[in-house]
Amino acid sequence: MNGLRVFVVAMVCCNVAFAQNYPTRPVTIVVPFSAGGPTDTIGRIMAERMTKTLGQTVVVENITGAGGNIGVGRVVRAAPDGYMVSIGHIGPHVINGAMYKLDYDLLKDLAPVGMFVTNPQVIVSKNGLPPKDLKSLIEYARSTPISIATGGAGTPSHISGVFFQKLTGGAAQIVHYRGGAPASADIMAGHVDVFFDQAVNALPQSRSGKVRAYAVTQTTRLSVAPDIPTVDEAGMPGYYMAVWHALWVPGRTPPAVIARLNSAMVEAAADDGARKRLMDLGQEILPRDKQTPEALGAHHRAEIEKWWPIIKSAGIKAD
Fold first, then answer.
1. pLDDT tens digits, one per residue of 231-273
2. How far apart are alpha carbons 169 and 292 in whole angstroms?
3. Closest CA to 43 of 58, 54, 55
4. 124, 202 contact by CB (below 8 A)
5. Long-range contacts of 266-270 (CB under 8 A, 24+ apart)
């Protein structure tokens, strides 16, 4: 028994000493998508500013494939020492768990560091669609078959479309595109009726009169578009969907190391230069109390509990 106590004390002391010295070499943020995309750009902004806080270079590595699963899996299987970090969003860290048979558990095998930005969707339609507000759109969709564009099978816009289809009685036709850009182009051209687009893309089109915006899918209005009501205000309460970004590390990473990474993340999100660059991408910086590991853990679990039943009941599978 005494030997066990000595061992435990020794291990605790080693972990504390390790955390106090961390980091002593470069830290890698794994982006599970190609270079140049939104997650890659956000990851590089954060890595640049976190380097200043951590005193070691934070590099970005793009590990693509299987809708983000290969990159996430790489972090899951890495040493739990804080030197390999996963950045991701509702796609690879929530939706994929319902669409793929993963060899890891998204909640048990990853430890949350923190969530720092969110980009809700804006419900938009072609200008020629008769309904002028969300309540009218819902009633219209219940009586008239409409087409809903998506950025591809299993994307957040697809899941939102299925959610809306279920809400209105299933009359809507889901139309898949190879990405959000062609889907958005066909909305503007009037070839498809409705699209659940990310705010960063939808707002410029709405302002220029190329699409009609009905509501933003979060609890508060966007600071950069206060004229667009929330779904709660517009008649579809609780219909929240956002492409939020967060950081995770392998499970069993020492709490002190997680706290150090969280501190660097929080400082990056508070930095004027980084904030401006993120907001220029249409990202909303989360309040400080939403940036904790505990807040991310609770949000991550809630998102899985919300979306997995919808995805599975709709039979959505990976291509």
1. 999 999 989 999 999 999 999 999 999 999 999 999 999 999 9
2. 39
3. 58
4. yes
5. 266/114, 266/116, 266/291, 267/49, 267/50, 267/52, 267/53, 268/45, 268/46, 268/49, 268/50, 268/53, 268/116, 269/46, 269/116, 269/117
Q: Going along the chain, which residue ranges are E strands?
A: 27-31, 58-62, 84-88, 110-118, 121-125, 147-150, 173-176, 194-198, 212-216, 245-250, 284-285
Peptide linkage before 23 cis (omega within 30 of 0): yes
Domains of the chain: 26-118+244-313 (3.40.190.150), 121-234 (3.40.190.10)
The sign one gets for the Cα dihedral 146, 219, 279, 292 is negative
Give the pLDDT confidence of 94-119 residue by residue, as tens digits.
Answer: 999 999 999 999 999 999 999 999 99
